Amino acid sequence: xxxxxxxxxxxxxxxxxxxxxxxxxxxxxxxxxxxxxxxxxxxxxxxxxxxxxxxxxxxxxxxxxxxxxxxxxxxxxxxxxxxxxxxxxxxxxxxxxxxxxxxxxxxxxxxxxxxxxxxxxxxxxxxxxxxxxxxxxxxxxxxxxxxxxxxxxxxxxxxxxxxxxxxxxxxxxxxxxxxxxxxxxxxxxxxxxxxxxxxxxxxxxxxxxxxxxxxxxxxxxxxxxxxxxxxxxxxxxxxxxxxxxxxxxxxxxxxxxxxxxxxxxxxxxx
Length: 270
Known about the structure:
- 29% of the residues lie in helices and 34% in strands.
- It is α+β, with helices and mostly antiparallel strands and 270 residues long.
- The longest helix is centred in the middle third of the chain and has 17 residues, at 157-173.
- A hairpin with a 4-residue loop joins strand 4 (116-125) and strand 5 (130-143).
């Protein structure tokens, strides 16, 4: 038994001394990250973005199903549950928050069919740890309305004040954004909305905000973050959603922000 333990220890030591260092194992060359319908970004050392192709196939199938709906047997409608009243958003919001999202279901479906979507798994080795996150990006099929200039012009002080009102409205009501499934012992709780910020790009402004949430499963808490980026790509609203574990937020926020600020948009033939 003693001899076997010595052999195992020697074998383990041999394997460990011949393993490449983490920085070498994940040493991706500096390259470009190209999202066909958005553009190209120069990536830092150690960065990798891999598209989740199953998500693209899922979106394509959803579009096919909408274009060719299957006939389903008539079912007895379920009794509607009374809606819980929720405070209304502040009045007089910027057009980007009121006129770019259709409320008509048919208009929303048509817009979805014309829009582009992609999901990526992000990895980056900073020499001390290998970080991971997810990035969903969508490009609206419709052009941005002419009266929405939040990406190209300085926002008037009164409009900035309205955005601050949105933040305050979220802060005041975020405790209501909770869900609990007693049967499966799962709960979701929104923790925080971070400030709305604007950054200058070469071709206009980029807006961003973030939120934090806690999912509890069988009494075990898991904290996540989501950061939303909104920008104008060839006069189409383009939204990127970065997500991951809450502890990864401070690492990924500046990485993805700088990638999008340096984005080179594709040349669209006219």
